[in-house]
TrEMBL record:
<dbReference type="GO" id="GO:0005829">
    <property type="term" value="C:cytosol"/>
</dbReference>
<dbReference type="InterPro" id="IPR036678">
    <property type="entry name" value="MutS_con_dom_sf"/>
</dbReference>
<dbReference type="InterPro" id="IPR007860">
    <property type="entry name" value="DNA_mmatch_repair_MutS_con_dom"/>
</dbReference>
<dbReference type="GO" id="GO:0030983">
    <property type="term" value="F:mismatched DNA binding"/>
</dbReference>
<dbReference type="InterPro" id="IPR027417">
    <property type="entry name" value="P-loop_NTPase"/>
</dbReference>
<feature type="domain" description="DNA mismatch repair proteins mutS family">
    <location>
        <begin position="703"/>
        <end position="719"/>
    </location>
</feature>
<dbReference type="InterPro" id="IPR007695">
    <property type="entry name" value="DNA_mismatch_repair_MutS-lik_N"/>
</dbReference>
<dbReference type="GO" id="GO:0003684">
    <property type="term" value="F:damaged DNA binding"/>
</dbReference>
<keyword id="KW-0067">ATP-binding</keyword>
<dbReference type="Pfam" id="PF05192">
    <property type="entry name" value="MutS_III"/>
</dbReference>
<dbReference type="Pfam" id="PF05190">
    <property type="entry name" value="MutS_IV"/>
</dbReference>
<dbReference type="GO" id="GO:0140664">
    <property type="term" value="F:ATP-dependent DNA damage sensor activity"/>
</dbReference>
<comment type="similarity">
    <text>Belongs to the DNA mismatch repair MutS family.</text>
</comment>
<dbReference type="Pfam" id="PF00488">
    <property type="entry name" value="MutS_V"/>
</dbReference>
<keyword id="KW-0238">DNA-binding</keyword>
<dbReference type="InterPro" id="IPR007696">
    <property type="entry name" value="DNA_mismatch_repair_MutS_core"/>
</dbReference>
<dbReference type="InterPro" id="IPR005748">
    <property type="entry name" value="DNA_mismatch_repair_MutS"/>
</dbReference>
Amino acid sequence: MTPFMRQYTAAQQAHPDCLIFFRMGDFYELFYDDAVKVSRELQLTLTARDKQKSVPMCGVPYHAAETYIQRLLRKGYRIAMCEQMEDPKTVKTIVRREVVRVLTPGTAIDPSLGSDENNFLASLAPVGKDAFGVAVLDLSTGDFRATEFRGTDAFSLALDELGRLRPVELVLPESFHPGKAGLLADDEVELPGLEVRTRTPVEDWVFTADYALPLLQGHFHTHSLDGFGLAGHTAAAVAAGALVHYVRSTKQGELQHLDGLKYYQRGGSLELDAVSVRNLELVEPLWTQEGVESTLFHALDTCCTPMGKRLLRSALLRPMADAACINRRLDAVDEAVGSLRLREQLRRALDNVLDLERLLARVSMDSAGPRDVLALGRTLGALPTVLAEAAAFKAEGWQMLTSGFDALTDAYAAIINTIAEEPPVTLADGGFIQPGRDAELDELRTLSQSGRQSIAAIEERERERTGISSLKVRYNSVFGYYIEITKANLNSVPADYERKQTLVNAERFTTPELKEYETKILTAHERSVEIEKRIFAELRTTVLAAAHRLKETARRVAEMDLMAGFAHLAALRNYIRPQIELEGCIYEVVNGRHPVVERRLELAASGRFHPNSMHLDGVEGPSLLLITGPNMGGKSTYLRQAALLVIMAQMGCFVPAERMRLSLVDRVYTRIGATDNVSRGRSTFMVEMTETAAILNTATERSLVLLDEMGRGTATYDGLSLAWATVEHLHNRIGARTLFATHYHELTLLSDQLSKLENLRVACKETSTGIVFLHAVERGPANKSYGIDVARLAGLPQTVIDRARDVLRLHEKAENASVRGAIPAPPQPALQMTIFTPLSQKIVDRLQETDINSLTPMQALQLLDELKRELEGQA
Ligand SMILES: Nc1ncnc2c1ncn2[C@@H]1O[C@H](COP(=O)(O)OP(=O)(O)OP(=O)(O)O)[C@@H](O)[C@H]1O
């Protein structure tokens, strides 16, 4: 192996799970499998390092590497940056190279990250038998949180939490195998419900309290972790410690902005499990081709700042559960709705606020250039106006943000007085420090400036002296300053010119005078860049000393932005303030609209949204609405709308309705649509039943439960039986406010027995040209299903439609004959089945269990009589 290859192999062995970006002069080169992968992912040309073509290679220019790196990170790759540690000019042998940084999807801080979304790195820490810690960290903002779960379902709760947070990278103990630990089926490799591209195993010992706790204390310079709320929460602390360990191992710089950690507990908020977050399309569309327009996030996002947008996203995933907090925000929004002028002034001021958190993170991790720091400074400059505008509002929610608001005028002044007005992107060539900031720097700049002027003057003078009008004085980084003379004029070159370099058409010379100026200019420049870098480093320290204050200010700005955004939205779309009830289990909406569907119809100019009302009352009933009606009628929309309005109200946002009253909901459960999970080895039906089981086992009377077309994934009678029993269980045992949409019309009969069940139907009209959907939700059961009519609208061949109608008629006839209106009554569970079990079955069973050979003629007659009466009794 050549020394070069030895160097490469060492880097690779130290970072086996990374692509090695190997710096060679002006390029980063990749070799072997890395080269093959990267050339495919980034469409780069694959070459070879050797003649035998046994070492595939591809490369990217170092100055353009950032974009390539970002693309690879988004695809889930990890990258080790192996840099040249010596100047190639100063060493005779091969230059020393070292991996100086490891870049991973979860530790990215680059400017191309989506600004309205956190970039979460997460860890899962199994501690003891049934405790799991979960920690998440957004290195690009410094947001760092941890929680833990204990008990028999700790693992699934932890997975659910991770599913909700949707990290881009998950750190786990190396030997953790949920199958072997009996948490999942032995052969299950995926963690259910989690779509994390990058899973990063870390040595097991990192996930121990003995290591992780002191590590955290050391990082935060504290004697205990109690101040973060971590007392007694070892699993959470271990998960957090593992993240700090991991981030440090990637050599990401000093991490000064990572100055706090928050212990949080699920339960302090309206709980939304990962399934509901997905089904309700809160932040992501269910199907990628739909685009973000179908998400609630998109419909609600009118925030001006990236911090506001990120807060909106996390508020959506964790709406509040405390009436006082919700009302405080609603009061604040209400006040801002009332004053267009003040609201607009505040929003205009917020428009000038850039991503404070991410800029700070870049400064902290030493990847901020002069332009980033200036951007941070200018943003700080916008804060006094933001404060002044926000302070015009008097509601408590505003006062809590404006009183004690730190506009960081000192940090602002430090930056603006230091960084030049139009600085270059990088530090390399200087020119980013204000004149007047440092006397020595100014002097050196004048020196190098006058040197340059003198050189310009030399060109003029030498042209005159030699009579060569094409004579040029130029500079390049290898040869320094030179006088260039074309071949044709060489005979006019004076004797004091010294030859430096020969080109095809010209010769380059120098003179003692030129050399002298060159030295002066270059040393002055070098020295001035050094001073500039020193001043920049001092400025960085000053800014970082204010990191804690800056983060608090960023938090307040985000909240102001969110509230002003909610107010803007309410005014723009005619949303109203929901009324939060402190007692009871009420959920009442008058003329509510689905915020996303309403927008979609508006934008597509394809009709108006038909508002619908709803009344649920867990205490005095009705607590369960059973919704029937044709396909495409609007059942799912009605269900989803019910959930979205609750989520919006509990975020402190106004809602699309004429009136809304809500006793707070503790948790929203959804069983909507068939999410295909076949790739994970679970059938559609199995997924549906698992989700339903979770609801029936954990919903409370304060929950909101949405069940859409439950039971359709299996044989009709099985499905109907399960749906039937589920409705009874929800109604009799749980009492949760429930919306149950179904195509099993048989279920509507339950209203005779279940006092709090109300039948609703979505209205439609039959016309001569087919069925028309009115999207109006009315009282009463649907009297007919229109499956065949809808199928016709979808374009099924007429022959199939006609045949389907025939078959349907036959079926209905048969069913009428056997059912003949038998309404099941609860005390006789056996009879309940009769509504959908053909009655002859009982007789068939009786006959089958009879041994004719052992019957006397008398017994046979008795049996016949019994069967006859059975038949008559049922008829
Ligand atoms: N209230 C409404 N006003 C206007 N349009 C609506 C309304 N509700 C639903 N729609 C439109 O009707 C379409 C179908 O609605 P939805 O999916 O809710 O029907 P569904 O009854 O659940 O159908 P299926 O039983 O086939 O699942 C929606 O995409 C929407 O565009």
